[in-house]
């Protein structure tokens, strides 16, 4: 039986501010697995955005799209797609304000426009080798688990008020995740915990973003990165060092998972 179940966010948690995997983090993940722990990822990213990282760390259980697409031991465990009809309505409303969207399923992502400065600036910060190509009909053909709405923070409220079926979680000054209402990493974690028969007391989670708050509040043992905003730190049981300062290794030692 696996001893503990540990979830790690990616950006700002496993990966540093330059989107690099610190050597100390890679070694710590290997040490956890050698001790018999179950290691998983919990991220807002799409599965195709962290495939190389999964292979490098030999992790085959993950919560992606902030809990909307969950895989355990390389098998799909849980899916919670956005309403196609409501997403189409959001698209029409956003178009009147020149706010593009990106539709994302488990394999790819497509944009409602060919290019846009908001989209270019925010997507570039992810430092991935893929950029959304233009296909406004993509939502009609696939299950969409998450969308990206590109707008400034002050423009977001109008959409949140008009589309209560969706939850908007900002990840960049020019972009916000669009999730099903009630969707969160915590729901994805629960699906994995049920599949592996783990209680909350045997589950740990590390994160640094606003989309990690529910996850950190949900598990029995939570660790916020030193680079996390204050609201995230308040949601966690513990606060470790900055990701640039071997924060993962320090946090694992702090909670007693590694020595």
UniProtKB/TrEMBL annotation:
PROSITE patterns, sorted: COF_2
CDD domains according to UniProt: HAD_HPP (cd07517)
Keywords for this protein: Hydrolase
SUPFAM superfamilies in alphabetical order: HAD-like
Alphabetized Gene3D superfamilies for the sequence: 3.30.1240.10, HAD superfamily/HAD-like
GO molecular function: hydrolase activity
Protein name: Cof-type HAD-IIB family hydrolase
Organism: Ectobacillus funiculus
Lineage: Bacteria, Bacillati, Bacillota, Bacilli, Bacillales
